[in-house]
């Protein structure tokens, strides 16, 4: 299927769900992003700052860009002016810098941030523990932030086809979301996102309550390197 057909397919699949599609365009050129754009899609994800800013310059500015990969503190300044959502917030230090740079750019809309929580067994994956996320939200630094909005959680599941294992990890993240919601965001509608699911497991993720699936190869085709 073409990129446009894939976009329409996902639109149809997600129509009666609360879940949105983040089209992950990493490694694919701007022309391919444009094909999805022309099919009506406006929400795209990239995992590297350099690649993101190059594509952003080439593409229409009504695209909502999500950063989904690990973000170094010293690179926040390159994206803080325009980024819609940073899905990969994994420390208080990073969040402080995001808030600081958003303020410097005089943003009128806050930068949406998801707390990345580690749910997979591989220790190499970035992300906070649930307790670290709690500590972040309890901190005085966090309470004073005016230029960011914590809108939910994100997780990267173990790379496996074992459905039970995936289900367990998805449910764990959903439990984290619900606890954080009750503790810190009670009655705050802005805290609503559970970013879970990729090409291989998005259906399961939607069934387990994902509100954002991040699909790359399922839309744009295989990448020439695996990332
Ligand atoms: C690349 C990437 C995806 C998309 O992976 P696919 O298997 O191509 O759908 C999703 N989430 C993150 C964090 C990624 O880096």
UniProtKB/TrEMBL annotation:
Listed transmembrane segments: none
Record PTM N6-(pyridoxal phosphate)lysine, positions in chain: 26
CDD domains: PLPDE_III_YBL036c_like
Pfam families documented for this protein: Ala_racemase_N (PF01168)
Keyword Chaperone: no
InterPro entries named in the record: Ala_racemase_N, PLP-binding_barrel, PyrdxlP_homeostasis
Entry keyword set: Pyridoxal phosphate
Domain of life: Bacteria
Residues covered by the Alanine racemase N-terminal domain: 3-223
Family in the record: Belongs to the pyridoxal phosphate-binding protein YggS/PROSC family.
NCBIfam families xref list: YggS family pyridoxal phosphate-dependent enzyme (TIGR00044)
The protein's role, per its UniProt record: Pyridoxal 5'-phosphate (PLP)-binding protein, which is involved in PLP homeostasis.
Descriptive protein name: Pyridoxal phosphate homeostasis protein
UniProt organism field: Pontibacter saemangeumensis
Organism taxonomic ancestry: Bacteria, Pseudomonadati, Bacteroidota, Cytophagia, Cytophagales
């Amino acid at each position: 299927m073409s990129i446009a057909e894939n976009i329409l397919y996902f639109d149809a699949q997600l129509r009666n769900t609360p879940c949105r599609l983040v089209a992950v365009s990493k490694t694919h050129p701007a022309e391919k992003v444009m094909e999805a754009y022309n099919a009506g899609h406006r929400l795209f994800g990239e995992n590297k700052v350099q690649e993101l800013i190059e594509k952003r310059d080439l593409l229409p500015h009504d695209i909502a860009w999500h950063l989904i990969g690990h973000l170094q503190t010293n690179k926040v300044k390159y994206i803080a002016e325009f980024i819609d959502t940073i899905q990969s917030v994994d420390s208080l230090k990073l969040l402080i810098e995001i808030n600081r740079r958003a303020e410097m750019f005089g943003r009128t809309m806050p930068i949406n941030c998801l707390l990345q929580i580690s749910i997979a067994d591989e220790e190499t994956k970035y992300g906070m523990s649930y307790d670290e996320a709690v500590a972040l939200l309890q901190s005085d630094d966090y309470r004073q932030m005016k230029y960011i909005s914590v809108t939910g959680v994100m997780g990267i599941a173990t790379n496996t086809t074992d459905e039970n294992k995936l289900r367990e990890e998805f449910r764990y993240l959903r439990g984290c979301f619900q606890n954080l919601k009750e503790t810190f965001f009670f009655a705050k509608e802005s805290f609503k996102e559970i970013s879970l699911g990729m090409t291989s497991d998005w259906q399961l993720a939607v069934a387990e309550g994902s509100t954002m699936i991040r699909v790359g190869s399922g839309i744009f085709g295989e990448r020439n390197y695996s990332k």
